[in-house]
């Protein structure tokens, strides 16, 4: 099979290489997936650049992908040859990710890809959609994401034009929440609106106080604020989040964009009984990961999760041979979803 590999930490064009490798064989509890598309996420280039890929001599990057099961290992009875699936955390603690024609994965980290859902959509789920799900369920306000599960809640999505932001908007709206998104341009405002945000605030239009006031103005019940904040840049936005979150609300942050530490307003957060909730998928409890996979799959079945320009997530396709270019595009802040064609 054709696969992309790297053997040392470094820049994309210096260490990524397209090679021929034997087709892998699934072991107990595993299936082999013939991949059609692979998603490229920021975590992929960060693993490659920073050496966070485990103790392997050779690594094929990629956490997300979509394709068809073409072989099953011993003890597998929940998936069969011919089933369409999507992956998440494919390269976590494994050498073989999704930048390859085939990957072998444990069944518990695979979701079924409903008939009619494209492989482009399947490969765009994974890390973004599961991260969004966990952010929306990190507190006790909503434990699952399903129609009606977030009725009456208000959600603020910081960075509404990003892949996680896009998934959070679509999932929260499907579950019945009122969604406010923050963006940095008119172009990104259009994308967040296309994803389904009820209200969009351009945080570059004024000061942090102006941004907070704009969020308060459109959130249900005015100054009472939002129930859940899905935060991509706590270092930038902690003060805004503390001001706009409701009493008993949750600020769920999933990245360290713009800084590895954040000045959290202590009195403003404890006065509101607010929960500051960090999250990352790699250490997420397996039952929570499975719940997210199941809810995301249900959203796909319902047509509530979409990709493409009209869904606020433009797609950028690269052939496998241009994986370095795809990594560079993500590292450079490409707006939308970068996919590999396999």
Automatic annotation (TrEMBL):
Residues in Enoyl reductase (ER) domain copies = 11-340
Write down the Pfam families for this protein, in alphabetical order. Answer: ADH_N (PF08240), ADH_zinc_N (PF00107)
Question: Is Disulfide bond there in the keyword field?
Answer: no
Q: Which UniProt keywords apply?
A: NADP
GO MF, one term, reads: oxidoreductase activity
The family database entries (InterPro entries) matched by this protein are listed as: ADH-like_C, ADH-like_N, ER, GroES-like_sf, NAD(P)-bd_dom_sf, Zinc-ADH_QOR/CCCR
Q: What protein name does the entry list?
A: NADPH:quinone reductase
Q: What is the lineage of its organism?
A: Bacteria, Bacillati, Actinomycetota, Actinomycetes, Propionibacteriales
């Amino acid at each position: 099979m054709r696969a992309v590999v790297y053997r040392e930490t470094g820049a994309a064009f210096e260490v990524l290489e397209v090679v021929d490798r034997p087709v892998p064989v699934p072991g107990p509890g595993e299936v082999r997936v013939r991949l059609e598309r692979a998603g490229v996420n920021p975590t992929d280039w960060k693993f490659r650049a920073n050496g966070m890929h485990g103790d392997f001599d050779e690594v094929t990057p990629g956490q997300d992908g979509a394709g068809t099961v073409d072989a099953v290992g011993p003890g597998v009875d929940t998936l069969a040859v011919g089933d369409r699936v999507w992956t998440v955390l494919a390269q976590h603690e494994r050498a073989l990710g999704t930048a390859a024609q085939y990957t072998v994965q444990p069944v518990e980290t695979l979701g079924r890809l409903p008939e009619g859902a494209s492989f482009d959509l399947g490969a765009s789920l994974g890390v973004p959609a599961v991260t969004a799900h966990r952010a929306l369920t990190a507190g006790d306000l909503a434990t699952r994401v399903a129609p009606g599960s977030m009725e009456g809640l208000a959600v603020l999505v910081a960075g509404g034009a990003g892949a996680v932001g896009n998934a959070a908007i679509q999932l929260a709206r499907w579950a019945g929440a009122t969604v406010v998104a923050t963006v940095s341009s008119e172009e990104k405002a259009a994308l967040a609106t296309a994803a389904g945000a009820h209200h969009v605030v351009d945080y570059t239009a004024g000061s942090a106080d102006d941004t907070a006031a704009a969020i308060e103005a459109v959130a249900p019940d005015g100054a009472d604020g939002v129930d859940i904040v899905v935060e991509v840049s706590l270092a930038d936005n902690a003060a805004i989040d503390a001001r706009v979150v409701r009493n008993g609300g949750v600020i769920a942050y999933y990245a360290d964009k713009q800084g590895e530490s954040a000045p959290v307003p202590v009195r403003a957060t404890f006065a509101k009984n607010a929960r500051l909730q960090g999250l990352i998928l790699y250490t997420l409890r397996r039952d929570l990961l499975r719940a997210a996979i199941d809810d995301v799959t249900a959203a796909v079945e319902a047509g509530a999760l979409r990709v493409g320009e009209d869904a606020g997530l433009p797609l950028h396709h690269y052939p496998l041979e241009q994986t370095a270019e795809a990594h560079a595009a993500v590292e450079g802040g490409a707006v939308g979803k970068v996919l590999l064609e396999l």
